[in-house]
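Re: the 380-residue chain
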Amino acid sequence: MTAATQSPAVMTPFDDVNAWSLRATLHYFWWVFWAFTLGLVVTLSWDGWWHSTRVFDSAFSPPHLFGYGVATLCALLAARLAFTDHMRRWFGVGSVRVWLVPFAIPGALFVLGAGFVLLGIAGALDLTWHSAFGLDETGWSTPHSMIGCAFFLLYLGFAACRLALARHQPMRPASAFVLIVLVLLFSGIGLGPLAGNTSPAEVQQLALRPLFLREPAAEHAFRIALQWNLTRTNPLFVPLAAIWVGMALTLARRLEPRTGVYVAAVGVWSLLTVTPGPFWLAILASLGLGALRLPSWLVWGVSGALFGAAGAYVWHNPALAGLLTLVAAPLMVLGHALGDRLGGIIRDPSEQRGYLFVYLGLIIPLCTGIVDLYLRANTP
């Protein structure tokens, strides 16, 4: 057996061919990651500025075309990791069979590829939706919800790939920090407008902008948000956020066991969520109680209760503090269980586990899309 065809399990660090292959794979992986991430930052910033300065006239706007162009290019670049033998082998044994692909794909690469496929489906739906309805939708519409699921799945895929490579080249703290922050930023799937709209006053202020007053579709979307209070002040936000926070914190811990990196990443994430107070209570409580080696249900139950109480006051529901405390406690325990399961899958993705992400990426947007259609149909 030649050095070029040996399995990674029997390679030595002194083998020049294998050392070159691993370095090339790592460098190429980061090129794909940063190309996608920087393209996403530019797209989201440009798209937000575009819609806030121009009346909507077409779904084929420059930021949309740029974003989907970058995503397509990155998908093609990522495919090289799967279709190049000397790169693919570093991600583990092929465990997923994909139609028309003549070889089994490592689970981590499958999760990443599934994210790009889901993003392509969501993009096609998004262009169709905007062409038909303009800006008349909430964050729960099927296209927007699916785009959010695709971003989350993509960064889970990037994390899974780097964890697979970490068996041969340990991950630096800075790399782990960036990956965890991005996974957390896109982890709030299902929250939709409840996460994005901080208060009714903020929504009202946006609705009164001269630009949006000239757009009936956008004004209808604002009326939906105001009539149904699709903001963080809605009592439903704290229970749903309890599941999200429990899941996100546990997932981050499973992906990054180093306490310093974990705390730094979730700290930045909490600051970027606009209102960090309740998040930090949950973080500190889970860290402190976890250090005492208490049962996980007790750790996350207490953390959830603190999150519910703090969230009630921060998001203007003090009268419901007691109820939200009782409700948030078991829901954060549920979120912890989901995050633990999710982290285990990312650390060891397989065929059955990998396809689970595909199903969830389709089912969740369909369910939230039904909510969006109901709200649109029942708001004048």
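Residues 1-14 have pLDDT under 50 and may be disordered.
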